[in-house]
Specification:
It is built from one helix and six strands; from the N terminus they run ββββββα. It is mainly beta. The chain has a single domain, classed as Thrombin, subunit H.
Length: 112
């Protein structure tokens, strides 16, 4: 059996992403605190620039507004950007509130 994340959430990288400018400190099991700058988010995951290099399949715990603590797995990296997938789906009603909290400028929000 191969190493890496065994995700129950289907891969939906084409999901609608919402631009955000949100900084958060995530927790990594062995590295400790990892500072992330989240630049876009969907109900399935987010793209961020971490302050240190992480390996594909590594997991972090992130505390986000509205949904609270959620685990995310590193799916891809390119240059300084990294794509994370949530270990569970975020309910639509919570996701709408999350976007409102993370991106307070209504002009930058995508239409729903």
């Amino acid at each position: 059996m191969g190493a890496g994340a065994q995700l129950t959430v289907t891969d939906k990288r084409r999901a609608m992403r919402h631009p955000v400018d949100y900084k958060v400190i995530a927790e990594h099991r062995s590295l400790g605190d990892v500072h992330l700058h989240i630049v876009n988010i969907s109900a399935q995951g987010f793209m961020a620039t971490p302050d240190r290099e992480l390996g594909k399949g590594e997991r972090i715990d992130v505390r986000l507004p509205i949904i609270g603590r959620i685990e995310a797995y590193l799916i891809w990296t390119r240059d300084e950007r990294s794509g994370f997938q949530f270990e569970r789906l975020v309910r639509l009603d919570e996701f709408v509130k999350l976007i409102d909290e993370m991106q307070p400028n209504p002009r930058l929000r995508r239409s729903r």
